[in-house]
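Internal ticket - ligand job 406, magnesium ion:
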Amino acid sequence: MALIVQKYGGTSVADLDRIRNVARRVVKTFEQGNQVVVILSAMAGVTDRLIEMANNMSKNPDRRELDVLLATGEQTTAALLAMWLKSQGHPSKSLLGFQAEVKTDCAYGNARIMDVGAGQIKKLLEDNNIVVVAGFQGCDADGNITTLGRGGSDTSAVAIAAALRADRCEIYTDVDGIYTADPNVCASARKLDRISCEEMLEMASLGAKVLHLRSVEFALKHHVPVWVRSSFNEEEGTMLVNGEHDMEREVVSSVTYNKNEARITLKKVPDQPGIAAKIFGPISDSGINVDMIIQNTRAGGQTDLTFTVPKTEYARALEIERKVAEQIGAEAVYGDENIAKVSVIGVGMKSHSGVAAKMFSTLAAENINIIMISTSEIRISCVVEQKQAELAVRALHTAFGLDKEK
Ligand code: ADP
Ligand code: ASP
Ligand code: MG
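stdout (structure tokens):
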């Protein structure tokens, strides 16, 4: 008997028929003699609709109440699945995040899981229940409901699997596994049988939303065996593997894009010690993550400084920087939401040169202007105009020899 955690994403529970389809898969695993814990997302589109409603109610919805609202999406699907299972004679119980003892910090909207108690889940499993847990939510030390950030149900699943020391955590989604690029954008993307946690971390942090970044961090830290599979077929999917292994060693192994960032530029900033701290201090105090930063050197003791933030924080960051600009005497502050970051990733890049040059010439050949560049040991990212993101992904995928054979 194995203990299996299965997570089903929004498309897999998009309507009642699909929830019944999920239930049949769950029952099959259960009837094979396994213990099963199911983690669910909200129905596809529901979280977006809840956010829309909140924005309609208030220009700046209270973050605590927003989390109370958003958590209802997952509460609905968890109850519906458990209800159907019971109606078919299978002992089952649904649990909300706090009942499953998913303890988080108090960062509403982007809370981190600190600990998972899982006592209640274990007890229900011992009593032979199929346990259904609402994903994406937890509870802080004061008992407030928190949510884990968009796509956070993956993290709920892997964290609960870690706490239960589950034999495997299966992430069921609407694609067959992890591909060399988003298969919905790049038809020639290839499915990977295995991927290293290191590369998956990089992909997730650069926008491949197939797995929530923190779920990969949990898998790596707690050695949780994770499979990404489709809930619509029986394909094997992709296995996450820890550390160095025998996977393909292409220089570039995947291409990702991220349309969820925005750019802010401060023009003619005094070129003096302490200025960067004044620009980024208030941003960090507001809990906003800055990603890329570029500073130009200019004549006359002035410089332009550009950085990117998550689009959801764009308005807040812009407001903060307008005040900063006044204090430090910068000439202007402006921004752009219509950008995308396109990245090529590969551990093989560590020992190869020429990847950046090839990336730039490939984008140039497609007439794509590069707005910002950043690099690490195993990836190169370029910010481009948002409308050119898909074209850039396809061109780079072909240029780096990743296309599947026709
Ligand atoms: P779920 O609702 O099941 O959590 P998501 O929409 O969050 O599903 O994630 C699955 C989506 O991730 C796919 O539909 C695909 O468009 C996208 N995606 C982006 N990059 C990749 C990739 N490299 N491999 C597979 N899917 C990817
Ligand atoms: N329902 C949440 C979202 O849409 C969490 C998830 O699906 O993982 O972001
Ligand atoms: Mg997801």
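Auto-summary: Residues 3-174 form a domain with the Carbamate kinase fold (CATH 3.40.1160.10). The chain has two domains: 3-174, 255-399.
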